[in-house]
Each structure stands twice: as structure tokens, then as C-alpha cells.
Design goal:
The protein is α+β, with helices and mostly antiparallel strands. It contains 5 helices and 7 strands. The protein has one domain: 2-Layer Sandwich (D-amino Acid Aminotransferase, Chain A, domain 1). Strands 1, 2, 3, 4, 5, 6 and 7 form a 7-stranded antiparallel β-sheet that branches. Bound molecules: uridine-5'-diphosphate.
Length: 156
């Protein structure tokens, strides 16, 4: 794999289409409710602090990224959502939410990290079966089989 080394911006960008995970706990909505509009959230990457939820004002005040960079980050995140949502839907897969990271390479803002069932919630559209890392998080078993199923459908 050819890769570019990035100076990672310490902000995790989460895009949500359906309620799950920490959003469900934070706002008290049950998992599975389709959001009436897409949510983009930012988390400050800090193991000591447990990656707290922050907003664009925090990002500006803490000098984590410029507002110009944040505007590009948000628009790329929504574009990734649009492309991925339709790509997965055509394979009977529901894109619930996912996380992105961005970084700088020679001053250029680039999408970094990976996009996989480790960083996305992906459900079977018909059965609602979880085909992502939640199988590991909630000790549901069948992690490898689920990841292989996503891979198999993506190849079609
Ligand atoms: N996520 C991730 N890495 C993290 C935290 C979250 O890839 O360190 C992904 C997670 O797989 C899900 C989305 O971001 O697709 C939203 O996660 P959430 O905030 O609900 O947190 P979680 O319930 O996973 O702790």
C-alpha cells in the first residue's frame, strides 16, 4: 500500500444518519431511529480525556484547525456520506454512522486513516443485523464473518 504521512488533526469527525452508540446515550433516543437530517459531530482526540464531544468554537479556540479547514472537512465528510450511503444501499447495506480523520501533508488538507467496518456502523438493510465493530463491542460473536460479508457485497 502506498501511503502519505499526515500530520493528523486531533479531531474525530463523526457523521450520523441513524441513532446509535454514544448519540443514543447522550440524547436518549433509541437505537435505529432515522435522523431527519444528517448530523456531523467533532470529538477532541485525547485518550486521557476520553475523546470529548466539542464544537467548532472549541476547535477554533484551541487552535486545533482553522475555520477554513473545518469548512472543507465538513463538506468532505458530507460528500463521503453521500457516496458511501448510496454505494452501500445498492448492496442492501445501511450506513448508520462513521468516523473520519483528516490531516495535513505539505500543508494540504487530506482525508486520512481508514474507512472500514471498524470505523463505520453498517447494518443489513433487511434484517438490521450488525455487520461492524459493534459485534466485537457488544460481544455478539461472528465479527470475522460479518466483515467478510461486507467485503463480499462490496465486491459485487
Ligand atoms: N468510531 C471510531 N473510533 C472511535 C470512536 C467512534 O471509529 O474512536 C466510530 C464508530 O465505529 C461509529 C461512529 O464512529 O461508527 C460513532 O461512534 P459513537 O460516537 O457512537 O461511539 P461508540 O458508541 O462507538 O463509542
Amino acid at each position: 500500500m502506498l501511503v502519505k504521512s499526515l500530520k493528523i488533526i486531533p479531531v474525530e469527525v463523526v457523521v450520523r444518519n441513524i441513532v446509535a452508540g454514544s448519540l443514543s446515550k447522550r440524547v436518549g433516543l433509541i437505537e435505529g431511529i432515522r435522523l431527519s437530517s444528517t448530523i456531523v459531530e467533532y470529538y477532541f482526540k485525547s485518550d486521557e480525556l476520553g475523546d470529548p464531544l466539542i464544537n467548532e468554537d472549541h476547535i477554533r479556540a484551541l487552535n486545533l484547525a482553522s475555520m477554513e479547514q473545518m469548512s472543507k472537512i465538513k463538506s468532505v465528510a458530507l460528500k463521503v456520506n453521500d457516496i458511501l450511503l448510496h454505494h452501500l444501499a445498492a448492496r442492501n447495506l445501511e450506513l448508520v454512522d462513521f468516523k473520519l480523520k483528516f490531516g495535513l501533508h505539505n500543508g494540504q488538507l487530506l482525508l486520512g486513516d481508514e474507512i472500514s467496518p471498524d470505523t463505520c456502523r453498517i447494518w443489513d438493510k433487511t434484517t438490521g443485523e450488525k455487520l461492524d465493530k459493534d459485534r466485537f463491542r457488544y460481544d455478539l460473536g461472528g465479527v470475522e464473518v460479518a466483515y467478510e460479508e461486507v467485503y463480499r457485497r462490496l465486491l459485487n
